[in-house]
Amino acid sequence: FAPKVLAGQKVLITAGPTFEAIDPVRGITNLSSGKMGFAIARAAREAGADVTLVAGPVHLPTPRGVRRLDVKSAQNMLEAVEGQAQGATLFIATAAVADWRVASQSTEKIKKDGSGQPPALNFVENPDILARVAQSPRAQSGALYCVGFAAESHDLLAHATAKRLRKGVPLLVGNIGPATFGQDDNALLLVDEQGHRELPHASKRALAQQLVAEIARRLPR
Ligand code: C5P
């Protein structure tokens, strides 16, 4: 029976990958099952929050009592987030947003032309959803608390510390250890202004509950 540490909070969460179409049958994406973000949505709801989950393409059931908006691309995700951020008091960005999209999507399937030469694709950078929300007046005034995630292959503490400052968020959460994509467990490194602490290896469900408690403790009151 979880204590209602997020009662009265309006929580907005991004989860899963984004999919950036190249043509009607192809695209680029990131590896992400969405499990951590969905577990956090569930834990936040159980902690008494009003929860909106903006989900990229994933195969997961919606946690009970959570409002879910399904999106495909990074731009779709940004629009959904901006549409919901107004009333939110807590934003948790767990999505693995694709860094790039093709500059111009083909409306027709790109055909092999027989020359043996692959098509040349030009990419443009996607918007950084977390950084944008963190720079918004509500976040800057402290009315909206922002939490970022980081998946790194090495030097997690150094990268997470730098990323926290670069994104302009009070709390940055690193995924510890080898890729946890699709796994049911994980370990987390929490980096904030005070320093860092580890949430040791556990199920994503247990970690989500611990993380919610850690965030609740940091919220301005
Ligand atoms: O820069 P990097 O992708 O490593 O940052 C990860 C954090 O930023 C995550 O919280 C992720 O959800 C968020 N992010 C985002 N929009 C992007 C890229 C990352 O919200 N375009």
From TrEMBL:
Pathway: Cofactor biosynthesis; coenzyme A biosynthesis; CoA from (R)-pantothenate: step 2/5; Cofactor biosynthesis; coenzyme A biosynthesis; CoA from (R)-pantothenate: step 3/5. Residues 11-221 are annotated as: Phosphopantothenate--cysteine ligase. CTP binds at D99, K109, P127, D128, I129, L130, F149, K163, K167. Residues 6-217 form the DNA/pantothenate metabolism flavoprotein C-terminal domain. One of its GO terms (cellular component) is phosphopantothenoylcysteine decarboxylase complex. Coiled coil: none annotated. Its EC number is 4.1.1.36, 6.3.2.5. It catalyses: (R)-4'-phosphopantothenate + L-cysteine + CTP = N-[(R)-4-phosphopantothenoyl]-L-cysteine + CMP + diphosphate + H(+); N-[(R)-4-phosphopantothenoyl]-L-cysteine + H(+) = (R)-4'-phosphopantetheine + CO2. Its cofactor is Mg(2+); FMN. GO terms for molecular function: FMN binding; metal ion binding; phosphopantothenate--cysteine ligase activity; phosphopantothenoylcysteine decarboxylase activity. One of its GO terms (biological process) is coenzyme A biosynthetic process. The keyword Transit peptide does not apply. Keywords: Decarboxylase, Flavoprotein, FMN, Ligase, Lyase, Magnesium, Metal-binding, Multifunctional enzyme. Binds 1 FMN per subunit. The keyword Metal-binding applies. In the N-terminal section; belongs to the HFCD (homo-oligomeric flavin containing Cys decarboxylase) superfamily. In the C-terminal section; belongs to the PPC synthetase family. Catalyzes two steps in the biosynthesis of coenzyme A. In the first step cysteine is conjugated to 4'-phosphopantothenate to form 4-phosphopantothenoylcysteine, in the latter compound is decarboxylated to form 4'-phosphopantotheine. Catalyzes two sequential steps in the biosynthesis of coenzyme A. In the first step cysteine is conjugated to 4'-phosphopantothenate to form 4-phosphopantothenoylcysteine. In the second step the latter compound is decarboxylated to form 4'-phosphopantotheine. This is Coenzyme A biosynthesis bifunctional protein CoaBC. It comes from Acidovorax temperans.
